[in-house]
Amino acid sequence: MPLARTVTAALAATALWAAALPATAQEFTLRFNHVLGPSEPFHQGFLNWAERVNKRTNGGLKMEVFHSAQLGVEEDIIEQIRQGANIGQNTDSARLGNYVPGIAIINGPYFVSSMDEVFALTELPTIQKWLQELADDHGLKVVCFDWVQGFRNFFTMKPIRSPADLAGQRIRTPPAPIWQESIRALGAEPVAMAFGEVYPGLQQRAIDGAELVYPNITAGKLFEVLKYANETKHILLVNFQVVSSAWFNKLPADYQTALVEECRAAGQETSAVIAEATAKAKATVQEMGMEVVEDVDLDAFREAGKAAYAKLGLTEAVEQVRAEMASR
């Protein structure tokens, strides 16, 4: 047989073989971005998630995890995701509320009070509706949101025991309406600022404090520029893992299942680790000289927080979801 005909026949056979391969023989890569440092429990949780997905798909779906916003600023990454990029982002419902306003309530003041409540939210009809809307209308597929980062508190240069004590205080918070209005409702002046800018912002007195979780303080060494940890516990921080809907829909069904199920499993495990890490971080900030203020008027803060929902027109959404939770 002439060489040209032999090569042609070989190429044809290769093409037929490739066409016959099952869809799961394809390889996919997800580059996953988060703003936290490599020492925080979430980073190890994301690595665990990636390892399990890789193993479960026999290397067909590989996750590469990037800490400290190595791929870019969170808001910019979310826009890339909406355009179909094979990137994932750890985010929160406050930012997702920019697209579907109702979902922002999950990170609103005093909305949920335990991890069990968070884990149950995904089954509620109203929540499912919002998640579908994010995917269909805005290109954002929520893989899961079982990642609970703990209660957010006010960390300041003066003790805070009531909303009145926050008057005139410039408090760093992420740039999303529910965050901004929550901090304003609780008595402070919100200042939008990226997490990486908090330390220099406190050094330069551009802000008077920040509302964060305890592990953020130790990871960022913010105890060097803060004096008081005020346990307002105003938000139970729930993290959402999002990818592109267009990218997700191209995955084989078993890859989709693996990504979701391992996200939930790793998230719930990491949430338990975070609870332990929070206690350790609290002890550490005290050892480093910060004073913990525990005698906070939580009833006053809860009442004040309602104004945030009212301001954003979300009171009805809160009542609807809470009614669904109560009827479970």
UniProtKB/TrEMBL annotation:
UniProt GO cellular component terms: outer membrane-bounded periplasmic space
Gene3D superfamilies, A to Z: Bacterial extracellular solute-binding protein, family 7 (3.40.190.170)
InterPro entries: DctP_fam, TRAP_DctP, TRAP_DctP_sf
GO biological process, one term: transmembrane transport
Any Pfam family: DctP
Key words, A-Z: Receptor, Signal
Signal peptide (UniProt feature, chain positions): 1-25
UniProt keyword Disulfide bond present: no
Keyword Cytoplasm among UniProt keywords: no
Designated name of the protein: Tripartite ATP-independent transporter DctP family solute receptor
Species: Tepidamorphus gemmatus
